[in-house]
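Private note to self, pasted from the team thread so I don't lose it. Backbone tokens:
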């Protein structure tokens, strides 16, 4: 992401916000199904509009992430979507984001569209390591749908295995789409597969380097453990943080029946602390339990520390 345009604002935890705060039914945590109804598209427009307003008010660029984290074959099958349905809905998602960009570009200015990719299996569980070749074949159709549309890039979120990350990057390169990989870490700062974040980023960079990395779906305090106390070449590859509001680990979050949205002020402080430690960050947003209150508080805290009016 071009840091010359400033730190991009992006959204919060779309699934937890829609389910727990807005009362929207998302079977299997899949937001992409909303694209298939007028009511669902209206709910998505309302959701993204809040973040466009934050970007506009703060004078920051906006990264719009498509609601396609679950739009892959395994999760699609559970929801009755075959390969043709998934191609259609992934394409429709990028068209929807392009429409949102047209709606808000005059107020915001710079808006980038990212096609969101999720892991094949549960992002909260360390299942068997996917082989890069298998991950390449599995994820390429979704990446191809993004490439055929108006997506500026694709981002793979909540990744727990190096092999899957490598396969996704190779698929994006084959489709000539810029690609970012976002690993998730647990409360101990390690990936659920057991390795450290430094080891994961280094391994992916050696095999198939993405354009940049992010970390998502972990509280800022867990991410702070993962990046370590000192700057290093590997953690300068991290360009984005999308953190959880809750300090709970993945097992607790997976079992939760209510949303833990923490305190927006505490979230903002913790996120701004990460920006101080990772000065190359150019994307900041939220993940589980966060909404526009958290992102707005974060943007205001970053501006305060920078001495902006």
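Design output:
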């Amino acid at each position: 992401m071009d840091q010359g345009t400033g730190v991009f604002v992006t959204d919060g935890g779309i699934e937890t916000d829609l389910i727990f705060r807005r009362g929207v039914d998302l079977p299997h945590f899949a937001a992409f199904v909303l694209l298939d109804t007028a009511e669902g598209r209206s709910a998505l427009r309302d959701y993204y509009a809040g973040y466009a307003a934050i970007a506009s008010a703060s004078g920051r660029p906006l990264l719009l992430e498509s609601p396609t984290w679950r739009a892959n074959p395994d999760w699609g099958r559970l929801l009755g979507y075959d390969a043709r349905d998934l191609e259609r809905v992934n394409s429709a998602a990028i068209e929807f984001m392009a429409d949102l960009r047209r709606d808000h570009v005059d107020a915001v200015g710079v808006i980038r569209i990212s096609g969101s990719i999720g892991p094949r299996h549960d992002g909260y569980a360390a299942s068997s390591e996917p082989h890069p070749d298998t991950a390449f074949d599995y994820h390429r159709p979704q990446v191809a749908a993004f490439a055929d549309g108006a997506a500026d890039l694709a981002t793979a979120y909540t990744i727990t295995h190096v092999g899957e990350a490598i396969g996704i990057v190779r698929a994006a390169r084959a489709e000539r789409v810029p690609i970012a990989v976002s690993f998730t870490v647990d409360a101990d700062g390690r990936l659920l597969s057991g390795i450290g974040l430094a080891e994961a980023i280094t391994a992916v960079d050696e095999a198939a380097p993405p354009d940049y990395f992010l970390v998502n779906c972990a509280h800022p305090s867990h991410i702070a453990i993962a990046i370590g106390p000192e700057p290093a070449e590997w953690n300068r590859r991290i360009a984005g943080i999308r953190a959880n509001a809750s300090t709970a680990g993945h097992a607790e979050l997976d079992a939760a029946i209510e949303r833990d949205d923490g305190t927006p002020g505490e979230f903002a402080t913790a996120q701004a602390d990460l920006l101080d430690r990772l000065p190359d960050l150019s994307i900041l947003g939220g993940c589980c339990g966060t909404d526009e209150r958290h992102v707005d508080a974060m943007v205001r805290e970053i501006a305060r520390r920078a001495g902006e009016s």
